[in-house]
Amino acid sequence: MSAIVLVRPVHFPPGREDVGLEWLRVAMQARCDAGMTYHAILRSRVDPHDYAAMMIWPDQTTYDRWHVSEERGHFFADQPHYLVREPTSRSLLIEP
């Protein structure tokens, strides 16, 4: 099975960058606890307000289990207060 790679652009509301980054870090740890194998929070070198969250899941089954979990629902209920989401790109990892 191929690993699933998700890349999500992230934009924080004005004045909410610090609290938004902390929320994102906590959410990433919850994903790791649920089986995500790697993550990174990226900031643009051109626009310091432009971020992206990259997540690698070992397989579709592990991601699907997280996606329908109660814990994920909890994080995404709070999410609008901390960041503005854009569509997530989804890829398969060909080589680590």
Structure description:
- It is globular, with a radius of gyration of 13 Å.
- It is of the alpha+beta class.
- It is built from three helices and five strands.
- It has a single domain, classed as Alpha-Beta Plaits (2-Layer Sandwich), CATH 3.30.70.100.
- It has helices spanning 17-33, 60-67, 70-78, and strands spanning 4-11, 38-43, 51-57, 84-85, 89-92.
- Strands 1, 2, 3, 4 and 5 form a five-stranded antiparallel β-sheet that branches.
- The mean pLDDT is 87.
Model regions low in confidence, pLDDT < 50 over at least 5 residues: none
User: What value does the Rg take, in angstroms?
Assistant: 13 Å
Count of helical regions:
3
Output the CATH class name: Alpha Beta
Outline:
globular
Helices and strands, in N-to-C order? EHEEHHEE
Report how far apart the termini are.
Answer: 13 Å
How many separate domains?
Answer: 1
What name is given to the CATH topology? Alpha-Beta Plaits
Q: Which sheet architecture does the biggest sheet show?
A: 5 strands, antiparallel
> Helical proportion?
25-40%
- Average pLDDT: 87
Measured by DSSP, the beta-strand proportion falls in 25-35%
* Class of secondary structure makeup: alpha+beta
Q: Give the CATH architecture.
A: 2-Layer Sandwich
What is the total tally of β strands?
5
Structure keywords:
28% strand, Alpha-Beta Plaits, five-stranded antiparallel β-sheet, 96 residues, alpha+beta, 3 helices
What's a concise summary of this model?
With 96 residues, this protein is α+β, with helices and mostly antiparallel strands.
Helix-strand blueprint:
Blueprint lengths: L3 E8 L5 H17 L4 E6 L7 E7 L2 H8 L2 H9 L5 E2 L3 E4 L4
Antiparallel strand pairs: 1-3, 1-4, 1-5, 2-3
